[in-house]
Amino acid sequence: MMKILNLAVLTLALGVLACGGEDESGSGENACDYIVGNNYSSVEDLECGVGKSPCPWQLFFNSDMRYEYRHSDQVSYGDYSCKGLSIQRVTPSGGLSEAGTYEVETATVTWGEVAYQ
Questions:
Q1: DSSP string spanning the chain?
Q2: Per-residue confidence (pLDDT) for residue 55, from 0 to 100
Q3: Res. 20 pLDDT band, cuts 50 70 90
Q4: pLDDT value at position 24?
């Protein structure tokens, strides 16, 4: 009986880690519920390469938990995860580093210090 209970607790813990977990405020909201499958543009036009006019930067969150970040004249790719309303990049070693947040009321992603809608 105890082995079954321990297995159930372990299974639940692994499930929470894979899904990211709740917002620390206890609201139960998760950024991935809002961002998966969506594309965002920077609220302001930003630098887009030497000698080019400012343009919106782009941020795409694919349903396969990969992101594409088009900033300046560069494109970055990677895996992401969510914990509460925090959006985390998955590092090459498999760790997590906070990359941004999601604001429910304004439907705004802040990635680094740039706001996207």
A1: -HHHHHHHHHHHHHHHHHH----TTS----THHHHTT-EEEBSS-B--STTPPPB--EEEE-TTSEEEEEETTEEEEEEEEEETTEEEEEPTTS-EEEEEEEETTTTEEEETTEEE-
A2: 96
A3: low
A4: 53
Structure tokens at 58: 């782009």
The larger pLDDT score, comparing residue 71 to residue 14, is at 71
pLDDT for 90-100, tens place per residue? 999 999 999 99
Sequence-separated (6 or more) residues with CB below 8 Å from residue 117: 40, 41, 43, 106, 107, 108, 109
Which are the contacts of 52, defined by CB distance < 8 A and separation ≥ 6?
73
| Count of CA atoms in the C-beta half-sphere (13 A) of 106 | 11
Structure tokens at 42: 């920077």
Task: Name residue 37's amino acid.
Answer: G
pLDDT reading at 107 higher than 80 = yes
